[in-house]
Design a protein that fits this description.
The complex is a heterodimer of chains A (162) and B (148). Chain A is mostly beta strands and 162 residues long. Chain A has a single domain (37-161), classed as Immunoglobulin-like (Sandwich), CATH 2.60.40. Chain A has 1 helix and 10 strands; from the N terminus they run αββββββββββ. In chain A, strands 1, 3, 4, 5, 6, 7, 8, 9 and 10 form a 9-stranded antiparallel sheet that branches. With 148 residues, chain B is of the alpha+beta class. Chain B is 17% helix and 43% strand. Chain B has helices at residues 2-14, 109-114, 126-131, and strands at residues 21-32, 35-39, 52-54, 58-63, 69-81, 93-95, 104-108, 117-118, 121-123, 137-147. Classes of the chains: A mainly beta (162), B alpha+beta (148). The interface between A and B is medium-sized, with 39 and 27 residues.
Chain lengths: 162, 148
């Protein structure tokens, strides 16, 4: 009988102990964010007389998944019209400026000249060596009076969601 | 507290994510070289005792850059008697239409485009003629051009 009472008490104690345990789960999110990074490879000067296979792109890039780096001609380019014709203006002009024209192409596509606000280069993922595309130009057109002709091209790079 | 968290969450979800764009410039350039022609007389006969003989006008024509000019300079070789090596030389000078001595001239880009001409005269002093001996005299004018 004593043994029974002892067992019963142990059982009651055990039950009441089990009844006081409370589980409270909470989560901790560990976050480490690596921002997009890229180094653009854009030629400072392109000499159409001595064209040395100009290229454009990145020296390296590290772009988040579901995003893409795009390069395009800026809408602010005054030397390019809507058809992608680039106008070079003679320097040191005293009278009416003489002009020459050309068109620029990328990726060996000689059918579609590069136009403002239309991306022509994209880079995704991570590359320590970067990626590039070649630029080509049509033969200079115009009367060609002697002189040095310049045009300033502004390229814009931005990362966008896919 | 929960309300503030909810507002913050909604703000994060619905705020537009800005796209950062970076711009860089490229200078596109080409140079068309100067191309011009100097026109000069190849031969000019001079009448005996002529003090002033008009030469065909010289000109520079063609295409120069706006900041370029063609300078034309002359070098004279006095007229020598080809039949009598002991005869004195017959010195001469070149003058322009204002009778100023002309040794060089400059054509800028507009002058070359307009094909500006310069009238020149070959002048021989009366004293020089008086010293001349019978025979055929020949001299030379060398025109040299340079781009400045």
């Amino acid at each position: 009988m004593k043994k029974f009472i002892g067992t019963l008490m142990l059982g009651v104690l055990a039950v009441s102990f089990a009844g006081t345990v409370q589980a409270d789960e909470k989560q901790t999110d560990v976050i480490y964010n690596v921002e997009n990074s890229y180094t653009l490879k854009i030629p400072a000067k392109i000499d159409l007389q001595n064209l040395d296979s100009p290229i454009i792109g990145t020296d390296a890039h590290n772009i988040k998944p579901m995003q893409v780096l795009k390069i395009q001609l800026s809408s602010a380019n005054l030397a390019i019209d809507e058809q992608g014709t680039i106008t070079l203006t003679r320097q040191n002009e005293k009278g009416t400026a003489k002009k020459l024209t050309t068109q620029m192409f990328a990726s060996g596509d000689l059918q579609n000249p590069l136009k403002k606000d239309v991306p022509f280069f994209e880079a995704e993922g991570t590359s320590s060596e970067g990626s590039t595309t070649g630029l080509t130009f049509t033969e200079i057109e115009g009367e060609k009076p002697a002189g040095t002709y310049n045009a300033t091209l502004t390229f814009t790079a931005s990362v966008e969601d896919k | 507290m929960k309300k503030r968290s909810m507002l913050l969450w909604l703000a994060l979800v619905f705020l537009p994510i800005p796209v950062f764009a970076e711009s860089q410039e490229t200078i596109l350039t080409t140079t068309i070289p100067a191309d011009y022609t100097l026109t000069i007389p190849s031969k000019q006969d001079v009448a005996v005792n002529a003090g002033k003989t008009a030469l065909p006008p010289i000109k520079v024509s063609g295409s120069l850059a706006p900041n370029q000019a063609v300078k034309v300079a002359i070098r004279k070789e006095a007229m020598k008697n080809k039949d009598n090596s002991k005869a004195p030389e017959l010195p001469f000078s070149l003058t322009d239409k204002t009778e100023q001595t002309w040794n060089s001239g400059t054509w800028n880009a507009q002058d070359a485009e307009d094909e500006k001409t310069v009238a020149l005269f070959l002048a021989i002093d009366k004293d020089a003629w008086e010293q001349a001996k019978p025979g055929r005299y020949e001299g030379k004018i060398v025109f040299t051009t340079s781009i400045e």
